[in-house]
Design goal:
about 250 residues; NADP; seven-stranded parallel sheet
Length: about 250
């Protein structure tokens, strides 16, 4: 029986790359998206062209009041598409960036970051836990910026640091069911994240490349396949870990 992974924010960026990497590894994927249904459907089409099953469901992780309705939609898709009541892997990828110095950060920016990256991750995992198969996996996305400092990333990095501690507690509390929970912390990656800050700003790109042992910033293909590999049975004994995938950023 195929494994089913639910990847949040899988219509673009690292989420898209992760969903496609999971499919290439032989898994089926539930793609969630906040607003761009067309992008999500493109990912579904690409996955189906690989011979795997996929569906797309809307989800705004910051709107915790909408999570119960999302869970009902998920249950319906699991029954209709796979004939199952559970899925196997949850990848909490959905997120956004707000980049400002501390004295320029607004309360709305701060609250928005924590709503998506911390509160959303916490309450989505709580709601989905009854539907996550025993022996399943959860991967939470963090950032290389929880280990180093870079001006303008204080609120974002604080939210990601909270995710890393949340991961440890999830691993402890869900471990009785054989569920492994880990954090993947990418370094600087060329995507449209944060308005394409790393991809499109040559100065920022060069700064992070100069901080990286392998001499460049990362690409989505450096991250998605790694997450897919973490979901394989080979890695069943890895849990409660922060795994940095940064090419040796500031070592």
């Amino acid at each position: 029986m195929s494994k089913i992974a639910l990847v949040t924010g899988a219509n673009r960026g690292l989420g898209r790359n992760t969903a496609l990497a999971i499919a290439k590894s032989g898994g089926d994927v539930i793609v969630t998206y906040r607003s761009n249904a067309g992008q999500a459907q493109e990912v579904v089409t690409l996955i189906r062209e690989m011979g795997r099953q996929a569906v797309a469901l809307p989800l705004d992780v910051a709107d915790t009041a909408s999570i119960p309705a999302f869970v009902e939609s998920l249950r319906s898709e699991l029954r209709n598409t796979w004939g199952r009541d559970s899925f196997d892997h949850l990848v909490n990828n959905a997120g956004h960036g707000e980049f400002a110095l501390i004295d320029e950060t607004t309360e709305a920016q701060f609250d928005g970051l924590f709503a998506v990256h911390v509160k959303g991750v916490f309450f989505l995992a709580k709601a989905l836990l009854p539907h996550l198969a025993d022996g399943g996996r959860i991967v939470n996305l963090s950032s290389g910026l929880t280990r180093i400092s870079f001006p303008g990333f204080a609120a974002y990095s604080a939210a990601k640091a909270a995710v890393e501690m949340l991961t440890v507690y999830m691993a402890r509390e869900f471990g009785a069911r054989g569920i492994a929970v880990n954090t993947v912390a990418p370094g600087a990656i060329e995507t449209d994240f944060g308005g394409g800050l790393v991809r499109d700003n040559a100065e920022v790109n060069a700064q992070f490349a100069g901080m990286t042992a392998l001499g460049r910033v990362g690409l989505p293909d450096d991250i998605g396949p790694m997450i897919a590999s973490l979901l394989r049975d080979d890695n069943r004994w890895v849990t409660a870990q922060r795994i940095e995938v940064s090419g040796g950023q500031t070592i």
